[in-house]
Amino acid sequence: MPGKPLKVLITRPKAKAQQLALLLNQQGIVNTSQALFDYQKNASAHDIATALENADILIFVSVAAVEFAHASYPLPNNLSQTIFAVGNATKKALQAIGITTTLSPSPQQEHSEGLLKLPQLSKVIGKRIIIFRGNGGREHIANSLTLRGAEVRYIESYQRVWRTLPIIIAEQWRAQKINCIVVTSNDILLALLKYLASTTNSTDNYWQSQCLWVVVSDRIEKNAKALGLTRIINTHGASSQILCNTLQALSCS
């Protein structure tokens, strides 16, 4: 974006948004944050205890899945199950509560597809697998492992409570000359586009055709294109450092 400094909108949940904002501030990249949802505890101690008694493999899909499960039922650090984390941040969240023997994909494969490529999940016939996640969400991991012969259940340790944003927020983004938006999930992408459509004149296509959208996976990129976005950068990774590196490179181009 030669001659046009980046002004970035971060749409991640609060903790991850703060982490990315700190890195961007250190690089002198102007940014603002707006979470689209909040987290709320969703599973009981009994639910989690019962699941742990009847599982061979545990999969944690996010930091929130770890933190809210542990808040509901303190997870012992000597679990006998094989434990997987979808990404490095989730792995670190498990380490923070004393669970150190965790398997996870490489940094460039921190998503469902990367997890499913791990050889330890290739032969799971008859295995009882518990996936810790939020309410709803993608079914790809469960469906794939079921096809491989596993018995899969969910513990939805938290739920997302979506915010209702007033029109003035979108007006503030335009006043701040936001020209780049970071989106890290399809749910966030859909919610944000729905909000922008409700606050923008139908003839105004700024967000769709002029704003740069930074996404973190092929799946989100494909969906963004299908929804009419034209300027898309795929970082192929959702860590704050990967996002910062991409935005720093863009700001220097």
Helix and strand arrangement:
Elements: E1 7-10, H1 14-26, E2 30-33, E3 37-41, H2 45-53, E4 57-60, H3 63-72, E5 82-85, H4 88-96, E6 102-103, H5 112-116, E7 128-134, H6 140-147, E8 151-162, H7 167-175, E9 180-182, H8 186-199, H9 206-210, E10 212-215, H10 218-226, E11 232-234, H11 240-252
Parallel strand pairs: 1-2, 1-9, 4-5, 4-7, 5-6, 7-8, 9-10, 10-11
Antiparallel strand pairs: 3-8
Helix pairs in contact: 1-11, 3-4
Structure in a nutshell:
The chain has 253 residues and is α/β, with parallel strands linked by helices. The protein has 2 domains: 7-36 and 163-252, Rossmann fold; 39-161, Rossmann fold, CATH 3.40.50.
Q: Helix segment count?
A: 11
**Beta strands, count:** 11
Question: What is the fold-level CATH name, i.e. the topology of the largest domain?
Answer: Rossmann fold
Mean pLDDT comes to 94
- CATH C-level class of the largest domain is Alpha Beta
How many individual domains?
Answer: 2
